[in-house]
Design a protein that fits this description.
α1 crosses α9. The radius of gyration is 21 Å and the shape is globular. The two termini are about 35 Å apart. With about 450 residues, it is mainly alpha-helical. It is built from 17 helices and no strands. It is about 75% helix and about 0% strand.
């Protein structure tokens, strides 16, 4: 059954529920590892480099498979591909929980990333099909809020679960949620596919604003994932906090991300994406710079202003960038648009972890006497870690500041619904990308 152009389908709220639950699985897993990672590394006897690969194997596999998965979903059926991805993600999560060596953890995390690549591009395409153009903005707003909440809640939930049950439970809890999504999708979600051959990614990138939206998404997650990786080492290894207290320490930033996401959606709906995106990135750069207050014994209260500003800026910036990509793409390429957004997310996160941890290690090495234990110090065991963390913070803030400048290049109306060549006639303003907010 083809619903890609036919307006709203049956059971739209069931579709949105399934998609949001699946998105929460992926979002929780992405940030939960920042808390569970040190415990995983210790149990597997992982080196600092292996710990990076345990974090990055998922992100790299996901990023590489997303574009092919998006085209597959548009052609073969978004519901079918979504079901395969959700079921596979649950199975892969169970396998990760059984991993006892670095090699197994890296392999199973990679498999988990491949399954996530199947479910994510199909998810937003199903939402577009279920709600039609008239109610899509409401659905995207709800999806954005739940995704932000999942990313924000990841460290807190993971901290409590790791403390009570050990790190494998973080992945085992994915299994029942995946089963619920499979059942809801199987009984309540209607199939959807593109009418005819979908366009190619190069065509999508030529849609006004989409390439800039993807770049902004990558920049935001460069800082978000990279700094979370470094901050978790700081809190658990240097400050000696357990996973629960690590999650509590991050509570201001996580709560403010949840508040910032719907605020970003409302601002985009009122003013268009350019101003909220630029303002969100400016806030994020200021908040990250404020993290330079961190030292070997910094009080939690001294960090709250910086973490709150960081969280608000993240929420506003990410929703604005996502709206530019998803709402600006033709419906016949909606799965590929979702894939592009996720490619930017995962590549940005993977590069952020790699670059910021490399900057941290380089700066730590410069602080140590010749022949000192660089690998141990770079994991937060010793005061030399603090200058390394400050160097990573400065690099992240500089990259985010460039993102604020790039956001000013978004054209007015880029978050408006793009015309679909196979769909109803479009107005001239929609065709040239100026059919949104002025």
């Amino acid at each position: 059954m083809d619903n890609s152009r036919s307006g709203p389908t049956r059971h739209p709220w069931s579709t949105l529920t399934a998609v949001c639950l699946a998105g929460m699985l992926v979002g929780l897993d992405g940030t939960a590892l920042t808390v569970a990672g040190p415990e995983m590394g210790r149990s597997a006897g992982a080196s600092f480099g292996e710990l990076q690969w345990i974090a990055n194997a998922y992100l790299v596999a996901l990023a590489l498979a997303l574009v092919p998965a998006g085209r597959l979903a548009d052609r073969a059926g978004r519901r079918k591909v979504f079901l395969a991805g959700v079921g596979g993600f649950g199975l892969a999560s169970a396998l990760v929980a059984t991993g006892t060596t670095s090699e197994l953890l890296i392999a199973f995390r990679g498999l988990q990333g491949l399954c996530a690549a199947l479910l994510q591009p199909a998810a937003l395409a199903l939402v577009r099909s279920a709600f039609g153009r008239a109610r899509l903005e409401l659905a995207l707003g709800i999806w954005g809020a739940t995704s932000a909440a999942a990313i924000a809640a990841g460290p807190i939930i993971a901290g409590a679960v790791v403390h009570a049950f050990g790190w494998p439970a973080v992945f085992l809890m994915n299994v029942p949620v995946a089963l619920v999504v499979v059942v809801v999708t199987g009984y309540r979600v209607t199939e959807s596919r593109a009418p005819g051959p979908p366009g190619r990614p190069a065509e999508l990138l030529r849609t006004p604003g989409v390439a800039i939206g993807a770049a902004l998404t990558a920049v935001a997650f460069f800082a978000l994932f990279g700094l979370l990786f470094c901050l978790t080492l700081y809190l658990q290894n240097l400050r000696g906090l357990d996973p629960v207290h690590t999650g509590e320490w991050l509570l201001p930033v996580t709560c403010s991300v949840v508040l910032g996401a719907p605020l970003g959606g409302a601002l985009v709906a009122r003013f268009g994406p350019r101003g909220p995106a630029a303002g969100g990135f400016a806030l994020l750069a200021a908040g990250i710079t404020g993290l330079l207050v961190l030292g070997t014994d910094t009080a939690w209260a001294a960090t709250v202003p910086a973490t709150v500003v960081t969280g608000l800026g993240t929420g506003v910036a990410l929703i604005a960038a996502t709206q530019v990509i998803v709402a600006g793409a033709p419906e016949s390429m909606s799965a590929q648009a979702s894939a592009l957004q996720q490619v930017a997310t995962q590549l940005g996160g993977a590069v952020g972890i790699a670059v910021l941890s490399a900057v941290l290690s380089w700066r730590v090495a410069a602080e140590l006497p010749r022949g000192g234990p660089v690998d141990e110090a770079a994991q937060g065991r010793g005061p030399a870690f603090v200058p390394g963390l400050h160097a990573a913070v400065l690099v992240a803030a500089a990259v985010i500041a460039l993102g604020a400048v790039l956001a000013l290049r978004i054209r007015p109306g880029s978050a408006g619904m793009a015309a679909d060549p196979a769909g109803p006639p479009a107005t001239p303003s929609q065709v040239d990308g100026e059919g949104g907010h002025q």
